[in-house]
Amino acid sequence: MNKVCKRGLALVLGLALLMTAGCAAQEPGSEEEQKAMEEEMALVEKDAMAAEEGYEEKEESAPAKEDVQGAFPRLIQSTVYDSLYHEERGLVASLEYDQMALSGDLAGAYPELAAALAEMSGRDAEQMKEEYEKYKDTALESDETGDEGYVMRFEKKYTVGRADDKAVSIRTHYVSMTGGAHGFSFTGAENFDARTGKLLALSDISPDPAALLDRACDNLKKWCEERNVGLFDPDGLRASVEEMFEEDSLNWALDPDGISLFFAPYSIAPYAAGELTARVLFSESPELFTGDMCSQADTWGRSLYEWQSAFADLDGDGSPEEISVASDRDEYDTVTGLCIYIGDQEYTFDKYGYGLRTFLLHGAGGKTMLYADLTGDNDYHSLEIFDLSGGEAVYVDSLQAGCSVLYDDETNQAGTCLITDPSSFILAVRGGDISTYSMSRVCHLGEDGLPVPETDYYTVVSGGYQFTVLTPFKASTVDPETREILEKAVTVKKGEVLTLLRSNNGSWVELTAEDGTLYRVEIDSSDWPRTIDGKDISDIFDGLIFAG
Q1: Nearest-angstrom CA–CA distance, 133 and 130
Q2: How do beta strands 90-102 and 152-163 pair?
Q3: Within 10 A of 518 (CB to CB), how many other CB atoms are there?
Q4: Given Cys at both, which of 5, 32, 63, 406 links 67, Cβ 3.0 to 4.6 Å?
């Protein structure tokens, strides 16, 4: 999918180059003509990026707070990679860290939150780059790194534990491997008031943080006793947690149904115990919480990292089940199966792909669904859908769709639009009516747990798909506002330049002319070649680009 988005950017840049070349071939015009050309180029680039659902923050196009009351923040996640190779030993160090931003279509609704996420991402990026640079020389000089040893790893990944109109909680998963048996890892979190962008403290959500920590410790000790997990000092657990709290090193996250406290391996228990989580539910101890962000959410969504635990009451008994997802992979790191764990039960499904993103969604209809976005050959995506309601993992359907990938020209990064709002999320598909392109539309979680589209058409994600008419043909004109047909059988003239806007993925596309006229073109996509009124579209348009 990334390749499709980058291809769209290349088309934008290519168009700009062609326009520049056209100017160079002509006699220099007046300053007014040159200025007009520059303005035209700027508009082309702006329109192309606007078609990408506003990945860049654009204040002029973002709605105001009062225009999107109740709309959840739509989050865009991107990943930065770097690798260090030794000329003989191969890969000796790797860097991987995430960045998080608000989608431009809602940035105006949450300007303070957008700024807070940008600050968090910038700080984490600097921290990770600084640590990576610190160890580069050691990685190159050590005889223990590379093909015959280990690879130094520096990772900081994000998952979304909560994202609604009241609070946003971004979990941070840190891994550092610089030698030793296990390396170092921990889970942290940044919890924000969605309305103010303020970083939350326990005192912001609890009238009595000390009592809240008492309850968390009691719950954790009970959990460990039930599973025969040995703590270093059960009687001293509360004192250890208090010390972390006073030193501001206590990691906690605000969930849709309560809070979670995270304890890294070795901190309160042996490494074999893994990372431990203490939870306190809003419903369990309502007197320990305050404010409208501390009540059980009717609908919620979150993203999941492989092997990361999440909790949700799946069977309606008031007690949350522990949920996690993992993948089976072969020697080439190819996904060959999905494993869904609910409590002590394991459910396995034969699936194939290379990349994996998973999301938990709980909709207004009461369904709790797992959406797994698998990237396959040639960047095709499949959305594997499972129903977890009732406490079992039941396979529901597989759709040829996935997360929408948006490309930011300034940062040169591809960002994934996360599926964390059951009432409004974006799914992308591969279009192929008049070229190969990525297109998307907004959906919501239906009562049956399947995505329900908000429109009968898709919007092209990457701008810049422009075609020149070689042979006149018939089309309908469309009102740009109401999208009603204005006139049928209108002749589109030879030489017109049309820009692709949307498609219903099967029988028509809509393209806009340079004078603003919006055309709907009926296309027969049932076979190759694609045809319009029985004519091969390659005889009608110049500029078609099909993958493969």
Answers
A1: 5
A2: parallel
A3: 20
A4: 63
Q: What is the pLDDT of residues 241-288, one digit of tens each?
A: 999 999 999 999 999 999 999 999 999 999 999 999 999 999 999 999
| From the candidate CATH numbers 2.30.30.40, 3.40.50.261, 3.40.50.10490, 2.60.40.10, the one assigned to the domain spanning 465-548 | 2.30.30.40
What pTM value is reported for the model?
A: 0.84
List the domain boundaries for the chain: 465-548
Which residue blocks in 142-256 are alpha helix, DSSP H? 202-205, 209-226, 237-246
Residue pair 477/397 in contact (Cβ under 8 Å)? The answer is: no
DSSP state at residue 480: T
Q: Cβ(289)–Cβ(282) under 8 Å?
A: yes
Question: 71 to each of 50, 105, 163, 198, 363, how far by Cα in Å?
Answer: 20, 11, 10, 19, 15
Alpha-carbon distance of 70 to 62, in angstroms, equals: 15
- 510: which residues sit within 8 A by CB, 6+ positions away? 457, 478, 500, 501, 502, 503, 518, 519, 520, 521
Cα–Cα dist 497/519, whole Å: 12
Distance CA 251, CA 162 (A): 15
